[in-house]
Specification:
The structure is a single chain. By secondary structure, the chain is mainly α. Helix content is 71%, strand content 0%. The radius of gyration is 25 Å and the shape is elongated. It starts with 31 loop residues before the first helix and ends with a helix. About 6% of the residues have low confidence.
Length: 273
């Protein structure tokens, strides 16, 4: 004779009620900041192998430009523009050029499907990748700025402003690079757009603005990194106008928020295709 527990009998008062169909509880929705931190750590670990050659190329390029410009500039204002532009160029090389290539290849290879299956917000994917790539620019930017100040005889007292210039200019350029990579129909076009963007940052950011035609100056004002360059260059003076410095940084930060929002929209658009 088999013994059946009383709590499983249909007529028993101890019988357990079956859950109603469709009443299963879903897991909590992934929050932005924990997801952002996870994506950032994953991207940082993945790109760690290429960090040394990446930093070397970006830094060597900017230092070489400053050495070439050493015999061209005439006054302190031009020297300030060259040093500030060359320092921000390190950020543009990584955050704009390489990030455009990364997202272009990710879209072409179907890598966006992997991120689409993860329970992370789209903004966390874009911000995490952008932050990881921008983090590689910190040592190279600092080395370039110190070398440029020594080369042109500029003061080193206000180099701490790079703590604000690097993340704000990096956010603006990284958002632009991610948007170019995600919106480009082919990875080759994403690479081309990234190279053109970095060339624009080189020509419009490093060369002194006083020597540019009016039309070129207007194009320079449209480049997100310009305001980071201007904020950094203003700090080389004997008595910097901090109101203008903060204004340039505010514009750079506003452009960064807008460009990252566009990149997030481009990610959603590319992920559902």
């Amino acid at each position: 004779m088999s013994v059946v527990p009383a709590d499983v009998l249909p007529g028993s008062a101890l019988a357990v009620e079956e859950p109603a169909a469709g009443a299963a509880e879903l897991g909590p929705r992934a929050r932005l900041w924990p997801s952002l931190a996870a994506v950032y750590r994953a991207q940082l670990s993945r790109a760690r192998v290429a960090r040394i050659p990446l930093l070397f190329v970006a830094t060597f390029q900017s230092i070489g430009i400053m050495i070439l410009m050493r015999g061209v500039v005439d006054d302190a204002a031009e020297a300030q523009a060259v040093v500030a532009g060359s320092s921000v160029l390190v950020v543009a090389f990584v955050a704009l050029n390489l990030l455009a290539q990364y997202f272009g290849q990710l879209r072409a290879s179907g890598g966006l499907d992997h991120y689409a299956t993860l329970p992370v917000p789209p903004a966390a994917v874009v911000l995490g990748a952008a932050g990881a790539y921008a983090s590689f620019t910190v040592p190279g930017t600092v080395v370039t700025a110190v070398f440029g100040c020594v080369l042109f005889g500029l003061p080193l007292a206000h180099l701490w402003i790079l703590m604000a210039v690097i993340p704000l200019a990096g956010a603006a350029l990284a958002g632009l690079g991610a948007a170019l990579g995600l919106l480009a129909p082919r990875p080759e076009l994403a690479t081309l757009l990234g190279q053109l963007g970095m060339s624009a940052a080189l020509l419009l950011g490093v060369l002194p603005a006083d020597r540019m035609p009016e039309a070129v100056r207007f194009a320079r004002d449209l480049l997100p990194s310009t305001y980071g360059v201007e904020a950094f260059a203003r700090t080389f003076g004997a008595d910097p106008d901090w109101a203008f410095v903060l204004g340039d940084l505010a514009v750079c930060g506003g452009v960064g928020v807008f460009s990252l929002a566009v990149a997030t929209w481009a990610y959603r658009r590319a992920a559902v295709r």
